[in-house]
Design a protein that fits this description.
The complex is a heterodimer of chains A (about 70) and B (about 375).
Chain A lengths: L2 H20 L21 H12 L19
Chain B lengths: L1 H27 L9 E12 L4 E14 L2 E14 L32 E14 L2 E9 L3 E14 L4 E14 L12 E17 L2 E14 L7 E4 L2 E4 L5 E15 L3 E12 L4 E14 L2 E12 L28 E13 H5 L9 E11 L4 E12 L1
The chains are: A mainly alpha (about 70), B mainly beta (about 375).
C-alpha cells in the first residue's frame, strides 16, 4: 500500500473516531437509522450490477464500498 | 485448462470446508432452514447503447438463514450480449462489448459484418458467519473465464456507533481469444488482488457517514486481444502495461428527513499508476410515497483525466514508452447518469392472498451519456418474495 493511501486511510479513520468520541446516539434514538431507506446494504446488489457496466465504460473502479461494512444501526 | 479445473476443485473444497461448520451446527441444534427468513428474487435487465449493443440479463437470487448465526446468499446471472457488425475499420470502438469490456472477434468465420452474440454465465455464493463473510464468484464466456475468492470481517465499536470492516479478494482470470483475422489474438491470464477498509459512523440520530479506501493490484493481460491501434500510419495491436495499481477513497453520507425520505450524497476520488485520475459525485433522493411504494431519483457526475500513454493517434509504432491503446476509457472525458426507480409492495397493493403480501416489484430506468458521444439506456425490473 502506498504511503499516500495509508495517510488517507489514517485521516479517514481518525476523523470517524473523532466523531465517535463526540457523542454516542442512544439506541432508542436510532429508529430512523434502521429504516430501509437509510440502509446502505439495500442498494448494494444494484450498485454491484451498475459498477460492472460502468467499469466497461469508464477508467476507474471501486467506490461502492467494496466488501462493505455494517450499517452500525441494528 | 487442467490448472483451471484444479483451482475450481480447490475453491469448491475450501467453500465446503467453510460452510460445513454452519451446516453441522444447524444439525446439532435440530434447526432446519428458518422458514421466515428466506427470500427468492428474479430480476430482468435490458441495456441498450448508442453503439447498438444490447444486453439482456436474467438474475436469480436466493438467500436465507442457515443457522441463527449463519446466512447464505446465492446469485446467478445469465447474460446475452449482442454486439453489432463492424461498421468502421476494425479496432474501432464499435466492436467494444458493453458489459465485459472484451471486444468481439473480427473474422470471416465470425461474420464481422453481422451481429455477434456472446453469452455469459456467472454465479456467486456468499456465507456470513457471525461477523465474517466468505464468498466465491465464477464467470464464464466463450473467451473469458473468471474466478474470485473474497472475505471480509467487520466489528462494532462505541456502543455500535462505529463499524469497521476489512475486506480482501483475489481474482484470477483466464483469457483465450477466439480466432481473429486482424490481430494475433494472444491470450493470457490476469490476477487481481483487492483490499479495502471501511468505517461506518452514526453521526446523529438522522445521519450516518461511511468512509473507505480501496486498493487493487492487477497483474497480467490488461488490453483487448482483439483491438488494434492506429500508429505510424498503420494498425498495430493494442498493448497495455502488465501491472496496474488502482486506489480510491470514497465517502457516503445518508440523512433522514421527517417526511419519510432520505438523501444520500456520495463522493469518490480515484487514481492509478497509469495516470488515470477521476472524481465521482452523486446524490440520491428516496421518498416513501405510501407504506407500499417508494420512489427514488439520482444523479451521478463523473470526470476523469487520461492515462499517460493515451493518444488518439500514435506517430510511431513504439507508442508511448512502448504502450499503445485504443481504449477510450483511458482518455479524458466527463459522464452523467440520471436514474429513477419505483419499488412497490405488490401483494399489499393488489390485495391478493396473504402469501402474496410480501411480494415486491421494482422498476428502474437509467440514462447515461458522456462527452465521447456515447449514451445508454438501462431498464430494470424485478420481483422478490420472502418466504
Amino acid at each position: 500500500m502506498g504511503r499516500s493511501a495509508v495517510s488517507r486511510l489514517l485521516v479517514a479513520v481518525g476523523a470517524l473516531l473523532a466523531l465517535a468520541g463526540c457523542a454516542t446516539v442512544p439506541q432508542y434514538q436510532r429508529e430512523h437509522l434502521a429504516d430501509p431507506l437509510m440502509d446502505f446494504e439495500r442498494t448494494a446488489a444494484a450498485e454491484r450490477r451498475e459498477m460492472k457496466w460502468l467499469e466497461a465504460r469508464e477508467g476507474s473502479t471501486g467506490g461502492s464500498g467494496g466488501a462493505g461494512g455494517g450499517c452500525a444501526c441494528n | 485448462m487442467q490448472l483451471t479445473s484444479l483451482t475450481s476443485a480447490l475453491v469448491a473444497g475450501l467453500l465446503a470446508y467453510a460452510i460445513a461448520p454452519a451446516i453441522a451446527a444447524a444439525q446439532e441444534s435440530g434447526l432446519a432452514l428458518q422458514e421466515d427468513e428466506r427470500e427468492g428474487a428474479y430480476l430482468f435487465r435490458f441495456f441498450a447503447d448508442s453503439d447498438d449493443v444490447h444486453v439482456v440479463s436474467h438474475y436469480g437470487a436466493w438467500d436465507g438463514q442457515v443457522t441463527p448465526a449463519a446466512h447464505l446468499a446465492v446469485q446467478w446471472n445469465h447474460e446475452r450480449v449482442t454486439v453489432p457488425g463492424v461498421r468502421a475499420p476494425v479496432g474501432s470502438d464499435e466492436a467494444v462489448d458493453a458489459i465485459t469490456t472484451a471486444s468481439r472477434p473480427i473474422s470471416q468465420t465470425n461474420g464481422a459484418y453481422a451481429d455477434y452474440l456472446k453469452v455469459r454465465n456467472e454465479a456467486t455464493a456468499k456465507l456470513d458467519y457471525r461477523r465474517l463473510r466468505i464468498g466465491y464468484y465464477l464467470s464464464r464466456e466463450t473467451d473469458y473465464f473468471a474466478q474470485q475468492l473474497d472475505t471480509r470481517f467487520d466489528h462494532d465499536l462505541f456502543e455500535r456507533s462505529l463499524n469497521i470492516s476489512f475486506g480482501t479478494s483475489y481474482g484470477w482470470d483466464d483469457i483465450a481469444p477466439l480466432t481473429d483475422d486482424d490481430t494475433p489474438g494472444q491470450g493470457g491470464a490476469r490476477r487481481t488482488w483487492h483490499g479495502n477498509v471501511t468505517a461506518t459512523q452514526i453521526v446523529t440520530s438522522t445521519t450516518v457517514a461511511r468512509v473507505g479506501v480501496e486498493l487493487n493490484r492487477v497483474s497480467g493481460l490488461q488490453h483487448s486481444p482483439y483491438r488494434n491501434v492506429y500508429a505510424a500510419g498503420t494498425h498495430a495491436p493494442e498493448r497495455h502495461p502488465d501491472e496496474r495499481l488502482r486506489r480510491d477513497l470514497f465517502v457516503r453520507v445518508s440523512r433522514w428527513f421527517g417526511n419519510e425520505s432520505s438523501v444520500w450524497v456520495d463522493y469518490k476520488l480515484y487514481g492509478d499508476d497509469w495516470g488515470v485520475r477521476s472524481q465521482t459525485a452523486a446524490v440520491r433522493l428516496a421518498q416513501r410515497i405510501t407504506p407500499a411504494a417508494t420512489f427514488e431519483c439520482r444523479y451521478r457526475f463523473y470526470a476523469q483525466e487520461s492515462a499517460e500513454f493515451f493518444l488518439t493517434e500514435y506517430p510511431t509504432l513504439d507508442g508511448v514508452d512502448g504502450y499503445r491503446t485504443g481504449d477510450y476509457r483511458l482518455g479524458r472525458f466527463d459522464a452523467h447518469l440520471f436514474g429513477t426507480r419505483l419499488d412497490l409492495a405488490l401483494g399489499e397493493l393488489i390485495g391478493g392472498p396473504e402469501w402474496t403480501h410480501p411480494l415486491r416489484l421494482g422498476l428502474g430506468y437509467e440514462r447515461y451519456f458522456n462527452t465521447n458521444d456515447f449514451s445508454a439506456n438501462v431498464l430494470e425490473t424485478g420481483v422478490s418474495l420472502p418466504f
